[in-house]
Amino acid sequence: MKNRILKIAFFLPTLNVGGIERVFITYGNSLSEFYDVEFVLCKKEGILLKELSSKVNVYNLGNVRLANSFYYLRKYLKQNRLDCIITGGDYPNMVLVLASLHLSHRPKIVISQHNYFNIEIEHLGLWAKFSKIWTRIIYPYSHKIIAVSDGIYKYLIYDLKQKPTKIIKVPNPINVKEINVKSKKNVSLICLIII
């Protein structure tokens, strides 16, 4: 009997410019050499779409906003037997965890924390306080949480009260091939001196 290839998905609102998007594209392209990889997007848009390997599938939830994606993401999770789905960013993390609860076949839910939640949304006032509380309640329902640095690891434990056994530290990847290609290009340097 032939071994089944694992199916791994990445959930994001779009593939517009952003750090998390680039990190996941690097992961997805590398994993697509060995696994069935799919990007699940609220909207199939963004300048980074062209960066995806031809081996990576893209699934559009229907051009919905992240805030309205719960139902569509849950429907996708029910219809597709994923082994694992990964997301990043405070709100995508919460949406994915909630959408996956109580499914008959629940894939491994891996969320990633790339920033300090309180710094990102402190200007939102009362909403920020509720969001931090919701994060503390919802994050434990994931299978694993990726921390991209020692600081984020400590933040997850001490500020968001997550169990250390649930957290793994994985620094952001570096695409060495891309760096080598770009290093060989001629670049005109413009210096601006202000006196």
UniProtKB/TrEMBL annotation:
<keyword id="KW-0808">Transferase</keyword>
<keyword id="KW-0328">Glycosyltransferase</keyword>
<dbReference type="InterPro" id="IPR028098">
    <property type="entry name" value="Glyco_trans_4-like_N"/>
</dbReference>
<protein>
    <submittedName>
        <fullName>Glycosyltransferase</fullName>
        <ecNumber>2.4.-.-</ecNumber>
    </submittedName>
</protein>
<dbReference type="Pfam" id="PF13439">
    <property type="entry name" value="Glyco_transf_4"/>
</dbReference>
<dbReference type="GO" id="GO:0016757">
    <property type="term" value="F:glycosyltransferase activity"/>
</dbReference>
<feature type="domain" description="Glycosyltransferase subfamily 4-like N-terminal">
    <location>
        <begin position="17"/>
        <end position="177"/>
    </location>
</feature>
